[in-house]
Specification:
By secondary structure, the chain is α+β, with helices and mostly antiparallel strands. The chain has five helices and 16 strands. The strands form four sheets. Strands 7, 8, 9, 14, 15 and 16 form a six-stranded mixed sheet that branches. Strands 1, 2, 4 and 5 form a four-stranded antiparallel sheet that branches. It has a three-stranded antiparallel sheet with strand order 3-12-11, with no helix packed on it. It binds magnesium ion (MG) (2 copies).
Length: 292
């Protein structure tokens, strides 16, 4: 079942996502050579609790941290640790917050120091794919238009789309229907309606799409060892188009964090202003996939 949210609920979800993006902005300010993801994780937990929120990933199906981190060839769901970040690393941070009964969920990939041109191109293409996907969010638009926009841009740039993890609806649960794949043919699937909220999150590999999961049961990497990037917004469908939740805080961030793609919403929306077998979602087209 897809749960539609009222405008008042969307405002609460905006508040939850403001906290998420405050965390991500703060990571952008703190990240650098020698910093550890464990330090950033502890800082993030404190900030979330100081804002009256609860870290949504901590203890989720046993996940041990506030942030999911994704260093270099890690795609999603890495566990923060004590390894100092090194010049040339790229690292994704995925953050979830429960606030006043609603979930916020977003992710960004950051550069540490000077990264390679290839890494920068990968990050830029992933960011741009997210913007193109958001532009497809409109009433009576099709769900598959979102994934199609991501896939077209990513493959045009010579990169590949992860199939094994998908985006998702979000609201009073972290993962709601529908699943939101980052691939597929346009013009199919359900029609978008005002009040739907979708976590759109392209996961893009520099090499092949295949995934392997570490012995910790969480950390998902590229099988071929190439780099991977991940960006995510929670996006509401409104009568006038997409509303990126937490946008006010996103726009407060530094655009330099995002390589060659400017941060923020596509022009037209500015005015609006695991592991999981998915068994509880049986009946949806992508029921066997995991959520990111
Ligand atoms: Mg996320
Ligand atoms: Mg998500």
């Amino acid at each position: 079942m897809i749960v539609l949210k009222t405008p008042g609920e969307l405002d609460l979800m905006d508040e939850a996502n403001v906290i998420v993006h405050r965390v991500l902005n703060g990571i952008g300010e703190r990240i650098g050579v020698g910093v550890t993801t464990r330090e950033l994780d502890q800082w993030a937990e404190t900030l979330i609790r100081d804002h009256g929120g609860v870290p949504a990933f901590l203890h989720y199906k046993g996940f041990p941290a506030t942030l999911c981190t994704a260093l270099n060839d890690v795609i999603v769901h890495g566990i923060p640790d004590g390894r100092p970040l090194e010049n040339g690393d790229i690292i994704g941070f995925d953050c979830g917050v429960l606030y006043k009964g609603y979930y916020g969920d977003a992710a960004r990939t950051y550069a540490v120091g000077e990264i390679s041109d290839d890494a920068r191109r990968l990050m830029g293409a992933t960011r741009k794919a997210l913007d193109l996907a958001v532009e497809r969010v409109r009433p009576r638009g099709r769900l598959s238009d979102i994934g199609n926009a991501v896939q077209k841009h990513v493959e045009k740039n010579g990169f590949s789309i992860v199939r094994q993890f998908v985006g998702h609806g979000v609201g009073t649960s972290l993962h709601e229907e529908p699943q939101v794949p980052n691939f597929g043919r346009a013009g199919r699937g359900l029609r978008l309606k005002p009040g739907m909220v979708l976590a759109i999150e392209p996961m893009v590999n520099a090499g092949k799409k295949a995934v392997k999961v570490d012995a910790d049961g969480w950390t998902a990497r590229t099988k071929d060892g190439t780099l991977s990037a991940h960006f995510e917004y929670s996006v509401a469908v409104t009568p006038s188009g997409p509303r990126i939740l937490g946008l006010s805080e996103i726009l407060a961030g530094n655009p330099d964090w995002f390589g060659d793609q400017p941060i923020g919403a596509p022009r037209e929306s500015r005015h609006v202003g695991q592991r999981n077998a998915g068994s509880q979602h049986a009946g949806t087209q992508y029921a066997a996939r995991g959520y990111a």
